[in-house]
Design brief:
The chain is about 55% helix and about 5% strand. The protein is mainly α and about 300 residues long.
């Protein structure tokens, strides 16, 4: 039995959504999974409004708020998380700004949306001594050990996201200059310095281990699995957790923990917030500011060493 074609209002809604997503992809370079999430959110909004005799071109602020309230309650009390509502709210705001730019709306029904506030949760941080113990876990000269030592050193030295490390290419690394190119969110690239210990570990891996892992395969990724293919994020997670367990950090370590340690230890050493923002690849310095809450020890040290009346 043939599926009925979409109703005119549904078809119109899909056209508006596709036009919006094309704008995001071309103008802002958003990742494919982000675009797919936005598409899902907006199609769900369209269904909600059609069931109530409305559509996105005429929906009122109350209808939009009712939609978000329904999400918060959910079916049979299975409410959406605050993080999910924040993401959907951001999607709707962006969509309606686009409709106004295109002259399809005179008013923005999302202007007064009050999304749930993000909880002020500080990231888990491990100390310098704990990092030192962790980095000493991969021992020996077997290819897997040299790879693991290199990836742990690079993650801590450069503050890379898991996806940035697994997506790192041979052409992205310049050991002579001591830098690498990280491809972050939204296809944005940045140059990050690589410290001496990480360069040494990376050189040992590239010279003595990677050729053995790759075999006859012409892979361009820096980090490979034991079969010679690109290391996946799941594979990276398993490696980090395994060595964390050996270092006595069970339940406290993930690839992102090393990124937090990189940021916190740099601030504690005197790095300024703007430089840290650039190295982390944060679009907004407000995202980076969470690490200032983790460096009060350094602030006290600077205060008591610099203020003329601090010790009188």
């Amino acid at each position: 039995m043939a599926t009925a074609p979409p109703a005119p209002t549904e078809r119109r809604h899909e056209e508006l959504v596709l036009d919006f997503l094309a704008h995001l992809e071309l103008e802002r370079g958003l990742a494919r999974n982000t675009l797919e999430a936005y598409r899902s959110d907006l199609l769900a909004l369209g269904r909600h409004l059609r069931e109530r005799g409305s559509d996105v071109e005429v929906a009122s602020a109350r209808e939009i708020n009712d939609y978000l309230a329904d999400l918060a309650v959910g079916e049979q009390g299975a409410h959406a998380s605050a993080a999910t509502i924040r993401r959907k709210s951001a999607c709707l705001r962006s969509f309606y700004r686009h409709l106004r730019r295109e002259g399809l709306r005179e008013s923005d029904p999302t202007a007064a949306i009050a999304a749930p506030k993000r909880p002020a949760k500080l990231p888990e941080v491990i100390s310098r001594d704990e990092v030192r113990v962790l980095l000493a876990q991969p021992t020996g000269t077997e290819p897997a050990a040299l790879r693991d030592r290199a990836l742990l050193e690079v993650m801590y030295a450069c503050g890379l996201r898991a996806s940035e490390l697994t997506g790192l290419l041979i052409a992205d690394v310049d050991l002579e200059a001591g830098v690498l190119r990280a491809r972050g969110k939204g296809s944005k690239e940045r140059i990050v310095p690589v410290g001496r210990a990480a360069r040494a570990a990376l050189r040992a891996y590239l010279d003595g281990a990677r050729p053995k892992l790759a075999g006859q395969r012409l892979e361009t990724n820096v980090f490979l699995n034991l079969r010679g293919g690109p290391l996946s994020r799941q594979g990276l997670y398993a490696i980090v957790v395994r060595h964390g367990r050996s270092a006595g950090l069970e339940g406290r370590l993930s690839p992102h923990t090393l990124r937090h340690a990189f940021a916190t230890h740099l601030l504690a050493g005197g790095c300024d917030l703007r430089s840290l923002q650039e190295m982390l690849g944060h679009a907004d310095v407000a995202t980076t500011q969470i690490y200032t809450h983790l460096s009060s020890g350094r602030l006290k040290e600077v205060y008591f060493s610099a203020h003329p009346r601090a010790t009188e």
